[in-house]
Amino acid sequence: MSENSNHALTPETASDEAHSFAEYKAVIAALQPYIDAAKTGDGSHIRSAFFDHAHIVGSMNGEFFNMNADEFRDAVDGNASPNVEHRIAWVDISGPAAAAKVEFINWVGFRFTDFFVLYKQDGQWKISGKVYDSHAKN
Known about the structure:
Helix content: 25-40%
CATH architecture: Roll
Number of helices: 3
Number of strands: 6
Largest sheet: 6 strands, mixed
Oligomer: single chain
Radius of gyration: 18 Å
Strand order of the largest sheet: 2-1-6-5-4-3
Distance between the termini: 57 Å
């Protein structure tokens, strides 16, 4: 028997792995409207990614921001960055709870590191909260 045969998937683990990958993809899909809004400056994209109760906290140029989802939508609206780049650094999922770290470069001239907390309700992942660092004068 080769060493690799010890790592063969049983039907149960194969099903668990497929579910795990599907959930990862679903969390990434839940973040996509947020990413789209960075490029387009369309605040409605951002707003659709968040629960109504969502809270956003961070700072830019030394100014502290503490916003709800509607205020954040308004802050993003009209601030398109078509050349923004992003990288999803990690996603961690436990049942209906998830966390993700997404890094952006050149979003309205800033580099951002965003930490998201997501929750899956009624089969749909949404952002419950976000904290961020703008990497400038914080």
